[in-house]
């Protein structure tokens, strides 16, 4: 399991030139998570996960506070959580997660993004069976052996631990997110380079240069959609 997570994040950050768009998407995610339970991350685990991910993308506190206050204020604005699955060039696979207040609009936009960029939509389950829901948490200042030791002391058995540049990345079961995070916090580590619940492909593929260019255009088109929050795929950009 070697996704070179730091490289993926750096490339994504480089594409996110319009930070206001990124912040708006996080604002929506935070609002929805806060509405699903108590607007307090200590008692709302879904909200806590979103807030931790927002921190790794440097989302301003004002954006976070505004979304939570909106949820506290009893806003009737509602969103549906949707998942789309599809294929890009050369057998590449894509999962798209979206939050929308207009299902028909979002479905049409996602379908158009696939069609215009060499891909096609699949039916539910056509791609997701090749991905695993995974906790991914990355920290600096520790070696992989040190991280394994502190996790073992907390009685946590991760899927994998890898060193990527100066970051140690822990891959664990999706229900271990808070256990892994608490293990780090209890050892004085409170800053995370990565803190996400994500979908990781069971097997990555490498595309030839022309297909990779087309695939990147498809990713860009999907990630630029207002309603799309997360895009997962099985392509290794190296």
TrEMBL record:
MF term (GO), any: DNA binding
Main location (coarse class): cytoplasm
InterPro entries named among the record's database cross-references: Integrase-like_N, TACO1_YebC-like_2nd/3rd_dom, TACO1_YebC_N, Transcrip_reg_TACO1-like, Transcrip_reg_TACO1-like_dom3, Transcrip_reg_TACO1_YeeN, YebC-like
Key words, A-Z: Cytoplasm, DNA-binding, Transcription, Transcription regulation
Keyword 4Fe-4S: no
Signal peptide: none
Localization terms from the record: Cytoplasm
Ranges of residues in domain TACO1/YebC-like N-terminal: 3-74
Domain TACO1/YebC-like second and third as annotated: residue spans: 79-235
The family this protein is said to belong to: Belongs to the TACO1 family. YeeN subfamily.
Protein name from the UniProt record: Probable transcriptional regulatory protein N7Z68_00345
